[in-house]
Amino acid sequence: MKAPVKPLLVVEDDPGLQSQLRWCFDGFDVSLASDRREALAQVRRQRPGVVTLDLGLPPDPGGVSEGLATLAEIIELAPQTKVIVVTGNDDRLHALKAIELGAYDFYAKPIDAGTLTLVVERAQRLYELESENRRLQQSQVDTPLRGVIATSPQMLHACKAVDKVADTDVTVLILGESGTGKELFARALHEKSSRSSGRLVAINCAAIPETLLESELFGYEKGAFTGAVKQTLGKIEHANGGTLFLDEIGDLPQGLQAKLLRFLQERVIERVGGRQEIPVDLRIVCATHRDLRSQIANGVFREDLYYRISEVTIRLPPLREREGDALVLARAFLDQYNDEFKRSIRGFTQDALSAIESYDWPGNVREIESRIKRAVIMAEERQLSVEDLELPTQADRSALSLQDVRDQAELCAVRQALAKADGNMTQAAQLLGITRPTLYRLLEKFDLKPN
Ligand SMILES: Nc1ncnc2c1ncn2[C@@H]1O[C@H](COP(=O)(O)OP(=O)(O)OP(=O)(O)O)[C@@H](O)[C@H]1O
Question: What sequence ranges are listed for the domain Response regulatory (predicted)?
Fold first, then answer.
């Protein structure tokens, strides 16, 4: 079997060295570039694993400014590529500068083809290992559902549930806090189902005023109300043959709950202002962040509708309860936004990793995504820090300890009581509802004087 071609880019402006280097790397597909523009064009085209880069390039062949600028741009464009800079003899200073900028290694002229080949092969091996590693990491986080990134057992369980119900027609209720991925799951469920060639029509029951929601869902006939100038189909009819996603079902007004229940039981609708029963064949997926059972107990959600919409319930846990998912999501969003904004940020500082793991993520995946996106755009260093992510540091977190909060409240109350009682200990103790000895102990604790 033929070994795969390994693209290698040689950036060198000396024609003599170009022809020497063109043939000396066995097993590599060598391309040549003699200046920055050509080099970047080749990197874009070939995506080489390794680049050898002469630092003395035109228009500054006697210096290093052009070579270093080319290096910086190659790393920006292809952060995974290993760049070996070729320097003049005895030019350690610039070689070290290049390493600081992100070069993988350096090699001093005069060129010895055998030694340079060894350096290039070693770089290529590392490049391949890292690529393989990334591929493996990616396959570990790939779940059976498109677009869903997760490694925690809780989320893999939810993915499996989607897999099992996708091809049935059962009504699915997806529960979870805001930003946990309910809509993402609804879309994945639709795509996996036999109705995927039909449409997925989504409607947010909380975002549309009650007066409009009925006609949005069921459509209306011409003349049904002022402004109904032509017959209009509703979301339910639009979803015929596909899936209807009712987001925030817990906010569906009670009058419409009865109408939806009727549709679920009989699978026919009547447009607003119409008399005709229209059969509709679709699958319903609902989602809510509300606790429907307590809404039933409070009389705001119909129990019969609840049983209809929850033939299968899938719970998406909040991010703080998913073991290991925050880090996996953070890395995946970093890759995504590096690509999107053409940045080359290489991971997170150790403090940032700890902060990501220990933060509560009240906005769940939506919050982690937007924090990483903002940080990728704004960051000035090569790694994202706690400050870039605007997450609480260890110091902030300990300042919020319950004991500190209690102490602060106690201190404030004691000061107020002493001020009101004008330093009279008996009165202050009465105001606080404690004994005088306890008040004395508090004064000692906070190093306060009665007056
Ligand atoms: N496991 C995940 N992997 C990748 N992206 C995710 C994941 N979960 C959620 N997201 C992304 O997070 C964002 C919020 O997700 P989504 O809108 O599905 O949440 P939701 O639970 O429906 O929120 P809400 O209740 O506020 O409508 C979307 O951009 C979505 O793509």
Answer: 7-124
- The per-residue pLDDT for range 353-408, each reduced to its tens digit, is 989 998 999 999 999 999 999 999 999 988 899 999 999 876 665 555 667 778 87
Q: Which atom of ligand 1 is nearest to the CA of 155?
A: 1
pTM for the whole structure: 0.65
Cα 322 to middle of ligand 1, angstroms: 14
For 195-206, b/e burial (b = at least 16 CB within 10 A) is beebbbbbbebe
Distances (CA, A) of 446 to 401, 409, 449: 18, 12, 9
DSSP string, 255-296: HHHHHHHHHHHH-EE--BT----EE---EEEEEESS-HHHHH
Helix, strand, coil abundance in the chain, percent, nearest 5: 50, 15, 35
Q: Give the right CATH number for 6-131 from 3.50.50.60, 3.90.1150.10, 3.40.50.2300, 3.30.950.30.
A: 3.40.50.2300
Q: Which CATH class is domain 320-397?
A: mainly alpha
The reply to whether 154-315 shares the fold of 6-131 is: yes
Report how far apart, in Å, the C-alpha atoms of 357 and of each of 179, 325, 348, 352, 366 are: 18, 9, 12, 9, 16
- DSSP bridge partners of 10: 32, 52
Q: Please list every protein residue whose CB sits less than 6 Å from any atom of ligand 1.
A: 147-150, 176, 178-184, 247, 289, 365-366, 369
CA 172–ligand 1 middle distance (angstroms): 17
Q: What angle do CA 147, 152, 156 make, to 5 degrees?
A: 60
| pLDDT tens-digit series, residues 361-374 | 999 999 999 999 99
Break the chain into its structural domains and give their ranges: 6-131, 154-315, 320-397, 402-445
Nearest to 263 by CA among 228, 233, 237: 237
Our CA angle for 6, 12, 18, nearest 5°, is 75
Q: Which atom of ligand 1 is nearest to the CA of 316?
A: 21
The topology (CATH level 3) of 402-445 is Arc Repressor Mutant, subunit A (1.10.10)
ipTM greater than 0.85, yes or no?
yes
Residue with tokens 């993402």: 184
| Contact between 105 and 74 (Cβ < 8 Å) | no
Give the three-class secondary structure for 344: coil
Q: Which CATH number fits domain 154-315: 3.20.20.450, 3.40.50.80, 3.40.50.1480, 3.40.50.300?
A: 3.40.50.300
Q: Which amino acid is at 315?
A: R
Torsion of CA 28, 29, 30, 31, to 10 degrees: -160
